[in-house]
Amino acid sequence: MKIHEYQAKGLLRAAGVPVPQSQVAFTADEARAAAQKLIAETGIEVVVVKSQIHAGGRGKGRFKEHPDLGGVKVVKGADAAAEIAEKMLGSTLVTIQTGEEGKKVGRVLIEQGMDIASELYLAATLDRDTGRVMIMASSEGGMDIEEVAESHPEKILKSSVDPAFGMQGFDARAVAYGLGLEGKTARKMASFLGKIVTAYNDLDCSMLEINPLVVTGGGDVMALDAKVQFDDNALYRHKDVEALRDETEEDPAELEAGKWGLSYVALDGTIGCMVNGAGLAMATMDIIKYFGSEPANFLDVGGGATEERVTAAFKIICKDPNLKGILVNIFGGIMKCDTIANGVVGAVKQIGLEVPLVVRLEGTNVELGKEILANSGLKITSADSLRDAAQKIVEMTK
Q: Could you say which residues bind ATP here (predicted)?
């Protein structure tokens, strides 16, 4: 699950991580009031208006309605903040991560202007090779980390956090010194790192990225931006975090799938996939690509799916406007083939079938499942193997 920058900063502030003073605004009048409050409290007339969407690259992005305006704008005075906010709110921001369709901005963050001496990059994420939290840091803050990794890989520092002892002081200091920091700034950076790791663990994050992390003219360290993603499997422990979800920023199909306990990710291809088991789903997508086509989605119905969940999964697949065919690939272990067959037949009868459908069943109650499909009176093509199924659906959709 993702959240907005202002929400991420709220969580970090609660964890003791230094962040700038800021306030979210949903209207131009709220933006003006927020800017007036910041100016009065800080004595700094410069404020920053930051569009809030679930995508990176906002500063480099451009609004469709205002091609000369980026998603982050530094202004002077409350009236200027209100003027920019009015342009941003309700407009569509296109960034490198949104695609050409962009995302509509429904809220902006009004933030105090900062005296920035330098910009750094910092992230905490899970290193699956070691099973540990990995700290990544770079002196090249404000840039895409992928670009830094390609052009200056030596500028990316990594530090593994021992799960038994947490972020040790000497590890934190090593990162700070590796970034070229000295004196009180290095000490503040070490403290900052410890708080970031604590927040990452306590909130069950899957990724916590600060880009840029700034060093101010006074030598302080502060999170100027914040991007946080959470482990969906741990959200039951964090109802307060789950309440931060902005459903308008999420893919409607993925949101619907989540309500049914389905693992679904929309892709750019044309062949819809319904599979049980993540590994089998990946193999199914691979073999579709092998035979010259592209999968339209990843969809794992799980091992204990009911007919209702299978029907819901089939309906979600069929909502894809680019869909040209569907491949159902089920290996019945815990999941029974007749359950899948009944779900598919029920879904097709409810919503109709306008594209080719190939079903490959194997395992528990496979003969009963095939019999249900054969006697359904529907135009469903059976396959004897995954290879056979993939070849058939690719050929039928050409």
A: 50, 57-59, 111, 114, 119
Do 35 and 75 sit in the same domain of this protein? yes
The response to whether 333 counts as a known ligand-binding position is yes
3 falls within a domain = no
Cα distance between residue 183 and residue 308, in whole Å: 62
219 appears as a binding residue in the annotation: no
Torsion of CA 86, 89, 95, 98, to 10 degrees: -170
Q: Which residue from 112, 95, 111, 93 is spatially nearest to 103, judged by alpha carbons?
A: 93
Please give the tally of structural domains in the chain. Answer: 3
Tokens standing for 132?
A: 């540990």
The confidence score (pLDDT) of residue 335 equals 75
**CATH at residue 133:** 3.30.470.20
Q: Are 331 and 277 in contact (CB under 8 A)?
A: yes
- CATH number of the domain that residue 313 is part of: 3.40.50.261
CB 328 within 8 A of CB 311: no
- Phi/psi of residue 35, nearest 5 degrees: -65, -45
Per the annotation, does 297 bind a ligand?
no
Q: Which domain holds residue 298?
A: 251-396
Helix, strand, coil content of the chain in percent (nearest 5): 40, 25, 35
* Pairing between β-strand 357-363 and β-strand 325-332 as defined by DSSP bridges: parallel
Answer yes or no: are the C-beta atoms of 359 and 373 closer than 8 Å: yes
| Active-site residue list | 121, 209
- How high is the pLDDT of residue 358? 94
Q: Residues of the chain whose pLDDT is less than 70?
A: 143, 303-305
Q: What is the percent of the chain where pLDDT is above 90?
A: 67
- Are residue 258 and residue 392 in the same domain, yes or no? yes
Is 332 assigned a ligand-binding role in the annotation? no
Environment class of residue 134 by beta-carbon count within 10 Å: exposed (0-12), middle (13-18) or buried (19+)? middle
Which pTM does this prediction carry? 0.79
83 exposed, middle or buried (CB, 10 Å; 0-12, 13-18, 19+)?
middle
Same structural domain for residues 209 and 323? no
Q: Are residues 122 and 237 in the same domain?
A: yes
